[in-house]
Amino acid sequence: AQKITQTQPGMFVQEKEAVTLDCTYDTSDQSYGLFWYKQPSSGEMIFLIYQGSYDEQNATEGRYSLNFQKARKSANLVISASQLGDSAMYFCAMREGMEYGNKLVFGAGTILRVKS
Amino acid sequence: GAGVSQTPSNKVTEKGKYVELRCDPISGHTALYWYRQSLGQGPEFLIYFQGTGAADDSGLPNDRFFAVRPEGSVSTLKIQRTERGDSAVYLCASSLNGLAANEQFFGPGTRLTVL
């Protein structure tokens, strides 16, 4: 089974509107971490936001927030007030377990295009 | 610069040749990761170093792939007898230590093309 599923290959959003990028995950671990990364066309991976499985509050970082629904195993990224510079590929990733150095498992990504 | 650097940025080689890809992590970061990203896909884990030792090499596809980090800083990913299927972007990441909550900082990647 896929560990990380991103069902939206591509999304469009109007500038200044909010957009939600979907992510569901599959793990039997109780302790895990969920990450979102942005990859612009230049190729670098930019960390956006992190949610730990035991965190009771949804993570927020500026215009980014993570809608964490543990029972549904979903960790959707919400981008508010979209900007043209938000156009990029977005990856959801999971790290299982809390011991040292667990690898990140990435989804296939969602391409976001912001329209002016 | 203070970020993760990778050299070369692009490498074109012929099938069967040997290549080395270099990663300079952020100073002070003890954890270093290699990932491979094929076109249109998310990165896939290859290997993780904690200090000088490879703590997890479960992602290396076969014995043609090998990585070292002899002094606990710079790492080199080595690919022997390259095949066309090895063509991908190879990403290096580092984190302060290997703790689960620590963000991994990625380098710009090396785009490897095997002709």
Describe the structure.
By secondary structure, chain A is mostly beta strands. Chain A has no helices and twelve strands. The mean pLDDT of chain A is about 95. Chain B is mostly beta strands. In chain B, strand 5 (about 45-50) and strand 6 (about 55) form a beta hairpin. Chain B contains no helices and eleven strands. In chain B, strands 2, 4, 5, 6, 9, 10 and 11 form a seven-stranded mixed sheet that branches. In chain B, strands 1-3-8-7 form a four-stranded antiparallel sheet, with no helix packed on it. The interface of A and B includes residues 42, 45, 95, 106 and 109 of A.
How confident overall, as mean pLDDT of chain A? 93
Category from helices, strands and their pairing of chain A: mainly beta
Instruction: Give the low-confidence spans of chain B.
Output: none
Biggest pleated-sheet summary of chain B? 7 strands, mixed
- Cα end-to-end separation of chain B: 33 Å
- Radius of gyration of chain B, in angstroms, nearest whole number: 13 Å
Number of strands of chain A: 12
Structural class of chain B: mainly beta
Entry summary:
The complex is a heterodimer of chains A (116) and B (115). Chain A has 116 residues and is mainly beta.
Key attributes of the depicted protein:
heterodimer; A: 116 residues; mainly beta; six-stranded mixed sheet; four-stranded antiparallel sheet; 12 strands; B: 115 residues; seven-stranded mixed sheet; globular
Question: What's the topology here?
Answer:
The complex is a heterodimer of chains A (116) and B (115).
Chain A: E1 4-5, E2 10-14, E3 19-21, E4 24-25, E5 32-39, E6 46-52, E7 60-61, E8 64-69, E9 74-79, E10 88-96, E11 105-106, E12 110-115
Parallel strand pairs in A: 2-12
Antiparallel strand pairs in A: 1-4, 3-9, 5-6, 5-10, 7-8, 8-9, 10-11, 10-12
Chain B: E1 5-7, E2 10-13, E3 19-24, E4 31-37, E5 44-50, E6 53-56, E7 65-68, E8 75-79, E9 88-95, E10 105-106, E11 110-114
Parallel strand pairs in B: 2-11
Antiparallel strand pairs in B: 1-3, 3-8, 4-5, 4-9, 5-6, 7-8, 9-10, 9-11
